[in-house]
């Protein structure tokens, strides 16, 4: 290695890495997961496959301009047992000890309820060692919201080393990501005042005024996926299990019958009674939704309207969002966390517009391409591994568009709409 670089710890499949490539910055990622490393390699990102908790810091001394860290969130996430909250005092102790030059990780690890909890202290081991050579110039840390108190502890230590710091919760949807993903962020810099990037989007949008340029409306799933366009990605009827690899909720023959009916143009919406456009990209399993499936404002011959909605998991309290809204936070890892497109009535059809059960479209599992787009990855991002491995990587990744907005101020760059193309 030669010249300044950005060090990306727990680099995953390349959320930060893709943003850095778009911004033209040299990055080296440290990652242990085999398939995440293969995804990064396929995306052209430099990676050292290693255990971040064991890798020495010395090889990076004198070369690190920026340091980015997104520790594994499984110990803290609401999707898991959240034992990280129980272990939080031990993590705080590890951070304080590492900042003072004492490595007590081995002793503290024996007391942790979840061994992954202590990984949130690893950034301090690297930062404390690099501080001896006046590095890095800037730091960005990202995790689930419950880790915010830990980031505040980091900020206090970094301020004592001469950094300007900011900590808080940011919503990815405020930066153009078609997903309301909230994350705890720490921003630190030696050379500029640390502030969060200005939001580019808002729930309802804001017009330009004398007080600012205004903000666009949150990006909906339909807009990101290109639904309702005459080109672009489409929802896909899949044969085979979901992210967890289990059976489909109805026989695959039913899906084939549905796909064949769509191909022939014989299948009609249960409410609007209009035939959807023909499949595209020469595959019988791809079908483009018509306007009333993507937008709730359609006027249909049957007198009713309906649209696709994304159900975030199979639990009773799962978030169900229409395609006219951003997705809820996407997370995968077991069958309970599978996401499916489901038809949702917007207004009922007339009572004199009969429908049969066979005409009601079944749920459709989200594809890895669609999930990646909703994380703001490009449609052709080269995910590697089997279905479960790909979905796990996507759910754990940092949205590249959010990452770019966080990184750009440290490079004196601005992120433009053309930098990140979702549907293609």
Automatic annotation (TrEMBL):
It comes from the Bacteria. It holds the Pfam family DNA_methylase. The active site is at residue 73. GO terms for biological process: methylation. Its EC number is 2.1.1.37. Keywords: Methyltransferase, Restriction system, S-adenosyl-L-methionine, Transferase. The keyword Transferase applies. GO terms for molecular function: DNA (cytosine-5-)-methyltransferase activity. Transmembrane segments: none annotated. InterPro entries: C5-Methyltransferase, C5_MeTfrase, SAM-dependent_MTases_sf. Residues 265-284 are annotated as: Disordered. Belongs to the class I-like SAM-binding methyltransferase superfamily. C5-methyltransferase family. PANTHER family: CYTOSINE-SPECIFIC METHYLTRANSFERASE, DNA (CYTOSINE-5)-METHYLTRANSFERASE 1. This is DNA (cytosine-5-)-methyltransferase. The lineage of its organism: Bacteria, Bacillati, Actinomycetota, Actinomycetes, Kitasatosporales.
């Amino acid at each position: 290695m030669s010249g300044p670089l950005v060090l990306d710890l727990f680099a995953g499949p390349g959320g930060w890495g893709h943003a850095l490539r778009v911004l033209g910055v040299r990055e080296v990622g440290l990652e242990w997961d085999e398939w995440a490393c293969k995804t990064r390699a396929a995306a052209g990102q430099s990676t050292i496959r290693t255990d971040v908790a064991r890798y020495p810091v010395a090889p990076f001394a004198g070369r690190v301009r920026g340091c980015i860290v997104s520790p594994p969130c499984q110990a803290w996430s609401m999707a898991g047992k959240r034992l990280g909250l129980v272990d939080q005092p031990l993590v705080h102790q590890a951070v304080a000890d590492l900042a003072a030059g004492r490595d007590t990780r081995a002793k503290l690890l024996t007391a942790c309820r979840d061994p992954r909890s202590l990984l949130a202290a690893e950034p301090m081991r690297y930062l404390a060692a690099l501080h001896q050579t006046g590095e890095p110039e800037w730091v960005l840390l990202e995790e689930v919201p419950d880790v915010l108190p830990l980031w505040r502890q980091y900020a206090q230590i970094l301020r004592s080393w001469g950094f300007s710091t900011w900590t808080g919760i940011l919503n990815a949807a405020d930066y153009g990501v078609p997903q309301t993903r909230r994350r705890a962020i720490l921003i630190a810099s030696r050379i500029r005042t640390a502030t969060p990037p200005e939001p580019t989007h808002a729930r309802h949008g804001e017009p330009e005024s004398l007080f600012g340029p205004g903000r666009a409306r949150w990006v909906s799933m339909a807009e990101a996926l290109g639904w309702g366009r005459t080109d672009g990605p489409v929802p896909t009827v899949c044969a085979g299990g979901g992210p967890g690899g289990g059976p489909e909720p109805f026989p695959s023959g039913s899906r084939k019958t549905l796909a064949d009916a769509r191909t022939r143009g014989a299948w009609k919406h249960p409410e609007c009674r209009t035939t959807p456009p023909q499949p595209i990209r020469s595959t019988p399993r791809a079908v483009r939704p018509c306007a009333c499936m993507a937008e709730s404002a359609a006027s249909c011959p049957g007198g009713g309207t309906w649209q696709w909605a994304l159900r975030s998991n199979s639990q009773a309290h799962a978030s169900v969002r229409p395609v006219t809204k951003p997705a809820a936070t996407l997370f995968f890892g077991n069958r309970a966390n599978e996401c499916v497109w489901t038809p949702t009535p917007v207004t009922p059809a007339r009572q004199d517009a009969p429908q049969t059960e066979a005409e009601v479209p079944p749920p459709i599992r989200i594809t890895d391409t669609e999930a990646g787009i909703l994380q703001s990855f490009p449609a052709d991002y080269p995910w590697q591994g089997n279905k479960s491995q790909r979905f796990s990587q996507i759910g754990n990744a940092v949205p590249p568009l959010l990452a770019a907005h966080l990184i750009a101020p440290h490079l004196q760059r601005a992120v433009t709409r053309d930098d990140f193309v979702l549907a293609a």
